[in-house]
Specification:
The protein has a domain at 93-113 and 228-435: Rossmann fold (3-Layer(aba) Sandwich). It is globular, with a radius of gyration of 21 Å. A six-stranded mixed beta sheet has the order 3-4-14-9-10-13, with helices on both faces. The chain has 20 helices and 15 strands. Helix 7 (147-156) links the parallel strand 5 and strand 6 (162-169). The relative contact order is 0.14. It has 474 residues and is an alpha/beta fold. Bound molecules: pyridoxal-5'-phosphate. Pyridoxal-5'-phosphate binds next to helix 12.
């Protein structure tokens, strides 16, 4: 399988193979990598895959996209990643039935209790494998306000050849999140609490990344959500969810996905393009409704910071959707020159583009199956309460956004699977607001606030930060 950039003009793509793009972020032309074509999965293959354990299903799907890792090694990496020990059950992503035709697919029973573990755990093993093969090292450097940073640390802890330097705003994460991250004592994990806010952390990451000499000397990389390997790993649970919700390949299923950067639902798009019988892909946003606006109107408008809301489903608080370019590339017939213009020059000039007058826009719904909706804080509270009262199930705030929109758009006769993207314990204060009680804490997290912690507190000073990274690497 070869990969091309979403901004490569037709015929001018310089295709790359999987391991070349694994450790890279953006393509040098500013685009995102996608496979040259989507492998097609027929009904006989679906039948064969139906009964596979999750790790082996992952291997089958990944093999279609990865041809530069020997099959035996790739299978071993999948089996090492998707274990009941790490993900809490043999099913890995068990389906919970709420009522006839309405399901939750549990993607958040990994080490950090959010769905990002599904991909990040695999990425940790892939990185370790590929770095060892090349005899290289990588220093992952990032900023987090919670979810992504902890998923990266839990994926990379103890991995050879990788160090993680993760900045976070000092004292601003929840006590649970701080305990989760700072209790990691592995030598290769460096928690850096910055005296400032999340934006200060992001500015520091930018400042370090802009120093190309430093970046090269210390092999600085990232693990952000535009990495193709993360997206590919997420394709697997759409198949696993489909198999659990159906008994025959003639049945269709819709998925509803709480969305921010469009990574999760883009994996659903890939699964559908491969031939998985998905009816609708429902994009659920919170008040940060960049994506809902696009699917309703054809206008994609990046929000300014004054227009980006802090909500009670914070992992979906985005001003732009960094994976969205991948879908637009497919929607526009893989016209890389046009995508480069829209997302490069166009967004830089006006912060927006408008496809409503283009006949291709209608295909987002008619051909690609996209539907969207949004949810507000009041909706989340009502949905958490309603789901608890009617089904005895406690959902987190992000999953509540999904459930709210799913119930609005679902159609009789077609099962709707809502992706559960986090557990309620991560967002306890909103659960207390909705239900007047604390969410249950999984046994392995009892008492984590009392564990020893390792964190370095620093000012927002780029030189001090570089000195710290340099001293940890030498
Ligand atoms: C990251 C995240 C999302 C959004 O996923 P995208 O891939 O960015 O669309 C939703 N819910 C939770 C809990 C998350 O951590």
């Amino acid at each position: 399988m070869q990969y091309i950039s979403t901004r490569a003009a037709k015929g001018q793509a310089e295709p790359k193979r999987f391991c070349e793009i694994l450790l890279e972020g953006l393509s040098p032309d500013g685009g995102l990598y996608l496979p040259m074509h989507y492998p097609q999965v027929d009904s006989a293959t679906l039948s064969r895959w139906r009964s596979l354990p999750y790790a082996d299903l992952a291997f089958e799907i990944l093999s279609l996209y990865v041809d530069d890792i020997p099959a035996a090694d790739l299978r071993a990496l999948c089996r090492k990643t998707y274990t009941s020990d790490v993900f809490g059950s043999e099913a890995i992503v068990p389906l919970k039935r709420l009522q006839e035709g309405l399901y939750l697919e549990a993607l958040s029973n990994g080490p950090t209790l959010a769905f990002k573990d599904m991909a990040m755990q695999l990425l940790g093993n892939l990185f370790e494998y590929e770095l060892a093969r090349r005899g290289e090292e990588l220093n992952i450097f990032g900023a987090t306000s919670g979810d992504t940073g902890s998923a990266a640390e839990y994926a990379m802890r103890g991995k050879k050849g990788v160090r993680v330097f993760m900045t976070s705003p000092d004292g601003r994460m929840s006590p649970f999140q701080q305990a989760q991250m700072f209790s990691l004592l592995d030598d290769n994990i460096h928690n850096i609490a910055i005296r400032g806010v999340f934006d200060d952390c992001q500015d520091l990451v930018k400042a370090v990344s802009n120093d190309l000499a430093f970046k090269q000397r210390y092999k600085i990389g990232t693990v952000n959500s535009i990495n193709w390997a993360r997206l590919m790993a997420q394709v697997v649970y759409y198949f696993a969810g489909y198999f659990q919700a159906t008994t025959a390949n003639t049945e269709r299923v819709s998925f509803c996905v709480p969305s921010g950067n469009f990574g999760n639902v883009c994996a659903g798009h890939v699964a559908r393009m491969m031939g998985l019988p998905i009816d609708k892909l429902v994009v659920a946003t919170n008040e940060n409704d960049v994506l809902d606006e696009f699917f309703r109107t054809g206008v994609y408008r990046v929000r300014g910071s004054a227009d980006t809301h802090e909500t009670s489903s914070p992992s979906m608080d985005i001003s732009k959707a960094s994976n969205f370019e991948r879908f637009v590339f497919d929607l526009l017939g893989r016209d890389g020159a046009r995508v480069a213009d829209l997302f490069g020059a166009g967004l830089a000039r006006t912060g927006a583009f408008d496809l409503h007058a283009d006949p291709l826009f209608a295909q987002a719904a008619n051909v690609y199956g996209f539907v969207s909706g949004k949810s507000t804080h009041a909706d989340r509270i009502a949905t958490i309460r309603d789901t608890w009262q009617r089904f005895g199930v406690m959902v987190d705030t992000h999953t509540a956004d999904g459930l709210k929109v799913a119930q609005q758009v679902r159609q009789a006769g077609i099962p709707m699977v809502v992706l559960e993207t986090a557990l309620p314990i991560k967002f306890a204060s909103t659960i207390v607001e909705a239900l007047g009680r604390e969410p249950e804490r999984p046994v392995k997290f009892l008492g984590i606030e009392a564990l020893p912690k390792r964190v370095r507190v620093m000012d927002a000073d780029v030189n001090a930060l570089k000195a710290y990274i340099a001293s940890a690497c030498d």
